[in-house]
Design brief:
By secondary structure, this protein is mostly helical. It is built from 27 helices and eleven strands. The strands form four sheets. It has a five-stranded mixed beta sheet with strand order 7-8-9-10-11. Strands 1-2 form a two-stranded antiparallel sheet. It has a two-stranded antiparallel ribbon with strand order 3-6. Strand 10, helix 26 (about 595-605) and strand 11 form a beta-alpha-beta unit. The longest helix has 28 residues, at about 80-105. GO terms for molecular function: secondary active sulfate transmembrane transporter activity. Keywords: Membrane, Transmembrane, Transmembrane helix. It comes from Pinctada imbricata.
């Protein structure tokens, strides 16, 4: 690209350095420009950043953002109170039997399911941004607790409570530091496979409760083997009660889903509305109805002196747990387990449990926000669940998160604000004060039926065909996660699935697609950028094109897809330039974005040739080679060291 006076024009709109051989280097920043960029000292810049952050954090809007209750409470009215009261009590009827059952999954006494169910409701009322979400024990969090908080003392909650505290701290810090983006690196196929595998593990783990079997291990392969091995020891009364409870739960939940159809231009009467509401409430409170009925059956047997007919829950500690910090040590006879021992035994659970809690919460929050036409703030949700877990650990809770089933009940009950959690929490506290002695009669088969009924709907088999049609490669992490979770444990399955999905995600970066065109000059175009995982591969491909046809070909690298470079990339570019110089060929980097060009300028790469476009790069190589060919063609032909064919590219561009 030349001007009328024979001088080469700048290819990027700035003055270029031209060496005696005509090689073009990127423009150097002037001393004035460098001083202009650095006129703010690092100290002044730091002060400005700190000042801006403090002013933004201490503003009224920032405080309201951290306490969403300040936004909806001033508009709260009597109608909101009525709707929240009904929704809160309805959710309470659901969470009480679920909490008792989920504590079994966590390998804790049943009352710890209720200890975990009330404090999160109170905290979320002040800090949550979703009107629908209810916090409390869930099947997944219970299974994670049983997996990572394994106490050497039977029924001891120390490990579980400390896991709750650490989970809350990690989640709170992630919310403050806006690290919720980490959740986005767990792909949906991995989450779906993990959830399905966890649901199957949980459901099959409760078969022992339905059959009245004892001493069945928790891990899935051994549980399957031992269950079938001891199937002959089945307690018939427990099995009959468990199966009946499962059928009743199925029927009642189907009743809740009935969609009533009225004739056009006619409204149902008040009696019809009341009857429909009773039917819906019966389906919503199905767990409570089944548990209470089963407890009545057990009490009837005991009153007749048949104490061993059904396997019952037994005595529970009554009352509300004391508000105190979690214990950081555990004494078992002459052995003392310190905080370091306990935390080290949790291992990867300190990362997996908080992340899974966030995944559940954000997924549920976004789903119901879309359904009910409002928005949630993910970072604030992380802060809310973090604080909820931290404070819940002071009342002997294990890790909690949002519950999909109870959130659905809350939404269908007409909830208006997060205040419904206050009524749910109050009902749970009332149950702890008043109803604990009655929990003695609840049969274990009924609790197992509640768990199976709740988790079996989490198994998603339809996604397999969807992934096959949409993107078959996503089936790989899905299948691997599912199989690994069942075969070697869900704690390893989720890690393997995340690692595999990240490899699939990063592979195109490390091995980018490279297009090669020949328009008189070879043009190489990396399709996925040029960062350190890819630089060695790109070097090999460029050198391969340089050696094509047994000649030393000049190459233009189309950098239009290169959005960033790092130090390894710069080193690779230097090596490529040296390789091309040794081979007496030309290498031009074309279409560099401005930001990338500035990085290369600052690196001061020797003999770097750049051009505004691929066309300009091809013309530049043609002009360079014409000049050298006219001076060196005789020597090159005599020695046989260089064989360059220069083609006029203008007709091919």
């Amino acid at each position: 690209m030349t001007s009328t006076n024979g001088e080469r024009e700048p290819l990027l709109g700035t003055t270029q350095r031209t060496s005696p051989g005509g090689r073009v280097s990127p423009p150097k920043t002037s001393v004035v420009e460098r001083h202009r960029r650095a006129k703010l000292s690092s100290t002044e810049a730091a002060k400005k950043v700190i000042k801006d952050q403090l002013s933004s954090c201490c503003s009224v809007e920032a405080v309201k953002g951290k306490f969403p209750i300040t936004k909806w409470l001033p508009r709260y009215n009597l109608r909101d109170l009525q709707c929240d009261f009904i929704a809160g009590l309805t959710v309470g009827l659901t969470v009480i039997p679920q909490g008792l059952a989920y504590a079994k999954i966590a390998n804790l006494p049943p009352q710890y399911g209720l200890y975990s169910a009330f404090m999160g409701c109170f905290v979320y009322c002040f800090l949550g941004t979703s009107k629908d979400i209810t916090l409390g024990p869930t099947a997944i969090m219970s299974l994670m607790t049983a997996t990572f908080a394994v106490s050497p003392v039977k029924d001891d909650p120390t490990y579980a409570i400390l896991l709750c505290l650490m989970t809350g701290i990690v989640q709170f810090l992630m919310g403050v530091l806006h690290l919720g983006i980490l959740v986005n690196f767990i792909s949906y196929p991995v989450i779906n496979a993990f959830t399905s595998a966890a649901a199957i593990t949980i459901a099959f783990g409760q078969v022992k409760g339905i059959l009245g079997l004892k001493n069945i291990p928790r891990d899935f392969p051994n549980a399957v083997y031992e269950t079938f091995k001891h199937i002959g020891e089945t307690r018939i009364p427990d099995m009959i009660l468990g199966l009946v409870c499962l059928v009743i739960l199925f029927v009642l939940k189907k009743i809740r889903q009935i969609k009533w159809k009225d004739e056009e231009n006619s409204d149902p009467t008040a009696c019809t509305k009341i009857a429909r509401y009773i039917v819906w409430l019966s389906g919503t409170a199905a767990n409570a109805i089944v548990v209470i009925s089963a407890a009545g059956v057990a009490a009837a047997f005991i009153s007749e002196g048949k104490n061993d007919t059904l396997t019952i829950t037994g005595n529970l500690k009554s009352g509300v747990p004391p508000f105190k910090p979690p214990d950081f040590s555990l004494h078992d006879g002459n052995t003392t387990y310190t905080a370091g021992n306990i935390l080290s035994s949790m291992g990867s659970g300190l990362g997996i449990v908080p992340l899974l809690g966030l995944v559940e919460l954000i997924a549920i929050g976004k789903a119901f926000a879309r359904q009910n036409n409002y928005k949630i703030k993910p970072s604030q949700e992380l802060i809310a669940i973090g604080v909820a877990n931290i404070i819940s650990s002071f009342v002997s809770s294990y890790p909690v998160t949002g519950s999909f089933s109870r959130t659905a009940v809350n939404s269908q009950s007409g909830v208006r604000t997060p205040a419904s959690g206050i009524f749910t929490g109050a009902l749970i506290l009332l149950a702890l004060y008043v109803l604990t002695p009655l929990f003695y009669y609840i049969p274990k088969a009924a609790l197992s039926a509640v768990i199976i009924s709740a988790v079996i709907q989490m198994v998603d088999y339809k996604i397999v065909m969807t992934l096959w049609r949409v993107n078959k490669i996503d089936l790989l992490p899905h299948v691997v996660t599912f199989v690994a979770s069942l075969a070697i444990g869900i704690e390893y399955g989720i890690l393997i699935g995340i690692a595999l999905s990240l490899i699939i995600l990063l592979y195109p970066i490390a091995r980018p697609d490279i297009q090669v065109d020949n328009i008189g000059v070879t043009v190489v175009k990396p399709e996925h950028g040029l960062l350190f995982p890819a630089i060695e591969y790109v070097q090999e491909r460029v050198l391969k094109e340089n050696e094509a046809d047994g000649r030393s070909n000049s190459v233009v690298i189309d950098c239009s897809q290169v959005t960033a470079v790092d130090y390894t990339t710069i080193q690779g570019i230097m090596d490529l330039i040296l390789d091309f110089e040794r081979r007496k060929a030309k290498l031009v980097f074309a279409s560099l974005p401005a930001k990338v060009l500035h990085h290369l300028q600052d690196a001061d790469i020797p003999h770097l040739m750049v051009s505004f476009s691929v066309q300009d790069g091809c013309k530049l190589i043609q002009e360079e080679l014409k000049s050298e060919f006219s001076n060196d063609s005789i020597d090159g032909s005599a020695s046989g060291e260089l064989n360059i064919t220069v083609t006029n590219v203008n007709d091919k561009l």
